[in-house]
Design a protein that fits this description.
Layout lengths: L1 E6 L7 H8 L5 E4 L8 E5 L2 E5 L12 E4 L4 E2 L1 H13 L6 E5 L3 E2 L2 H14 L11 H9 L12 H21 L8 H15 L3 E2 L1 H10 L4 E4 L23 H8 L6 E9 L2 E3 L8 E2 L1 H10 L15 E3 L1 E2 H11 L3 E5 L9 E10 L2 E3 L5 H4 L3 E8 L16 H14 L3 E5 L7 E3 L1
Bound molecules: guanosine-5'-diphosphate.
EC number: 6.3.4.4
Family: Belongs to the adenylosuccinate synthetase family.
Protein name: Adenylosuccinate synthetase
Length: 424
């Protein structure tokens, strides 16, 4: 069976933990989109890890980790990540990389930086890892696919052609030094050497695995609201964050994705710019940020402090719907244990009207949160394993959210560890 683990919100919902946990029963874990611009934080018996490119299954010796064609593959980062986990005592994982995945080039990273400099204050809050220039090139059909590394003559020609166009922009828009075809070719040959042992026809591999009845997990990066089509455009990422894209980014039939587990955090956080209706500020936000996640709400890749807010029923309901959710995993609930009262956003007021429907960006910018305050449970719920053992107000909070978002919460995460989970 194929299951997807995806985010309902702006990312950082705790997908890494849920994937790691479900990975116990999985044979194969697949990354299908995104690049090294975001990360998952995973806490397990080996220690604490921030993964950016590797799927969260790399810690199990029974799983194969797959990088699907939909990913923005930064090869040096992948190599560092493999080395990093092996150095910390994790057995060398089984890794397969799609022969159709495209590579993030050094100039993509440069273009990302130059564009952010050029836009100055009007930037999109890029992490400058080359993701937007990478996907632009992919769809402009001037990207490099891993399979192309193995045809050196064709590659040489293509490199010449691409340097020509890149250099026009470098010189005239950014006023920077041009890139040299021989350097780019050498870069590609280095990538070839590094990646060759892992290259595989991933869609054929997965097709066979499905036929053999293997358990496959698709692991999404970021969340619904960062999807380029259905998110808060243009403050989005450059590849689809939706479970549906899992079929494309892994190369499997869409009807094989039987379960879509949408991870939803018990409060909100976001990185980068863009409307964030239930955002809070000042001491209230600082306290939640400090207590949030596992050691505070700071970016796994960038270390940036995340923007904080209360749970947003409007955004989460939409986020779950657009994912095609079958199950909600409600995470980081333990963090709210310090509160006497918990505000929840239950509607958006836009031009004097209250709605539960998540709007497009121009309306979203005008939305004001309609809040409702629920009583807190004011105690530590870590270690609880049965739903009935949760404090009454905590169950009421979960049931309130479930009613508002209209999708079943079947898993509740009350701590960062693999076993901190309550099935319902
Ligand atoms: P991802 O990108 O969706 O995987 O999210 P992150 O890597 O940002 O994960 C969120 C953080 O919360 C990580 O530091 C996790 O270890 C931590 N985390 C996940 N689930 C829980 C939970 O239920 N409780 C607490 N306290 N921390 C959690």
């Amino acid at each position: 069976m194929v299951k997807a683990v995806v985010g309902a919100n702006w990312g950082d919902e705790g997908k890494g933990k849920i994937t790691d946990m479900l990975g116990k029963e999985a044979d194969i874990i697949v990354r299908f989109q995104g690049g090294a611009n975001a990360g998952h934080t995973i806490v397990n018996d080996y220690g604490k890890f921030a993964l950016h490119t590797l799927p969260s299954g790399v810690f199990y010796d029974h799983t194969t980790s797959v990088i699907g064609n939909g990913v923005a593959l930064n090869i040096p980062t992948l190599m560092e990540e493999i080395k990093g986990i092996v150095d910390q005592g994790v057995p060398m994982p089984k890794i397969k990389v799609s022969d159709r995945v495209q590579m993030v080039m050094s100039y993509h990273i440069l273009f990302d930086q130059y564009e952010e400099e050029r836009l100055a204050g009007k930037s999109f809050g890029s992490t400058k890892s080359g993701i937007a220039p990478f996907y632009s090139d992919k769809y402009a059909k001037i990207g490099f696919q891993v399979s192309e590394l193995f045809d050196e003559n064709a590659l040489r020609e293509k490199v010449e052609r691409i340097c020509e166009t890149k250099n026009v922009v470098l010189e005239h828009l950014y006023h920077k030094d041009p890139i040299r075809p021989e350097d780019i070719f050498e870069e590609l040959m280095n990538y070839k050497e590094m990646i060759a042992p892992y290259v595989c026809d991933v869609s054929a591999f997965l097709w066979n695995a499905i036929k053999e009845g293997k358990e496959i997990l698709l692991e999404g990066q970021l969340g619904s609201l960062k999807d380029p089509d259905h998110g808060i455009y243009p403050m989005v990422t450059s590849s689809s964050t939706l479970a549906a894209y899992g079929a494309i980014g892994a190369g499997i039939p869409p009807y094989e994705i039987k379960k879509i587990i949408t991870v939803c955090k018990a409060y909100s956080s976001a990185v980068g710019a863009g409307a964030f209706v239930s955002e809070i500020f000042g001491e209230e936000a600082d306290e939640l940020r400090r207590r949030g996640g596992d050691g505070g709400e700071y970016g796994a890749t960038t270390g940036r402090p995340r923007r904080m807010g209360w749970f947003d029923c409007v955004a989460s309901k939409y986020g779950c719907r657009i994912q095609g959710t079958t199950d909600v995993a409600f995470t980081v609930l333990d963090v709210l244990g310090y509160l006497e009262e918990i505000p929840v956003c239950v509607g958006y007021e836009i031009d004097g009207e209250v709605t539960m429907d998540f709007p497009t960006t121009s309306k979203l910018q005008k939305a004001k949160p309609v809040m409702e305050v629920l009583p807190g449970w004011n105690c530590d719920i870590r270690g609880i394993r049965k739903y009935e053992d949760l404090p009454e107000n905590c169950r009421k909070y979960i049931e309130f959210v479930e009613e508002k978002i209209e999708f079943p919460i079947t898993m509740i995460s009350n701590g960062p560890g693999r076993n901190d989970i309550i099935y319902r």
